Amino acid sequence: MRWNDLDRENCSLSRTLAVIGDRWTLLVLRDAFLRVRRFEDFQASLGIARRVLTERLKLLVDEGVLKKVAYQERPLRYEYRLTEKGIGLYPALVALVHWGDEHYAGKKGPPLLHRHLSCGHDFRSVMTCSECGEALDPRDVKPHAGPGARKRA
Amino acid sequence: MRWNDLDRENCSLSRTLAVIGDRWTLLVLRDAFLRVRRFEDFQASLGIARRVLTERLKLLVDEGVLKKVAYQERPLRYEYRLTEKGIGLYPALVALVHWGDEHYAGKKGPPLLHRHLSCGHDFRSVMTCSECGEALDPRDVKPHAGPGARKRA
DNA sequence: TGTAGTAAGTCTTGAAAGTGAACTTAGTCA
DNA sequence: TGACTAAGTTCACTTTCAAGACTTACTACA
Fold this sequence. Notes:
The structure is a homodimer.
Chain A: H1 12-20, H2 23-33, H3 39-46, H4 50-62, E1 66-72, E2 77-82, H5 84-87, H6 90-104, E3 112-116, E4 121-122, E5 125-129, E6 141-145
Antiparallel strand pairs in A: 1-2, 3-4
Chain A binds a DNA duplex through residues 1-2, 24, 38-40, 43, 48-54, 74-78.
């Protein structure tokens, strides 16, 4: 199977991964959330091959995860910013980071903490149920076919 | 940069991606959460090349995300099950699925729904603050250097 | 005893994607 | 004029992936 075929699969995870399911893409997004915006800055920060960076940024822009915004004219130059759709990936990214903090941080602790400005504390994200507000235990969740289901979910 | 070098980077996301940041790996984990456990079943379900599946399963076992459990002797055969560490990836996976539901589900709606057994409703996951319990707005979060920080976060 | 079947890999070969360095373009600055 | 900058593009080379055939160790059937 080719990766471009993934978006035709009837699974929201496949379709998500067809857009952002590539290591570089997720690192680009991490940087974007840390306010990196320009081509040279992404390149220097990640050490990514320039051709690959060009390709990934283009895909993210085409998918509406990032948008190009001119930051100067003559010479015309653009920077890349997260759209609302892109910001919607924050929970997933934070969940991955916190999983890494938990299992791969060294003795000293995690390299980066997240502060919740409105309460003032460093936090970990907790996945809760949109309906009852309780914290979710994976064993307390049952997947079932939804309205868009075909044969395989 | 090689991908094996990623785990030496001082960033929890890099270290996480060195383990699970590969499209196939995440799809393997999706299947694992849907109770797929055997080599042949993963292979048939995903259409993944057998060599790549072998490799990915081995990495996940080496990293303690999956464990091999014998389900019969003579011939000795193993199945792959999520460990506690693997189950810890559930929030991230659900967040990715829900992002896909939101942006890529067709007119009919998402192919798969998640029911919270203890409250009985289909839900979406909401990221909340472990300290104050409020839902988190990405704009209300400020990352800052943690105890394990080196020069770059 | 021979034949087929099963589960979990392993091997092989051509195609695709990634890597690093040099090059290009359009403009500024001194 | 010459050096510099940002954002790519091009090129030669290496690594990884895809698809399918093959292997191993055992069971079940006739």
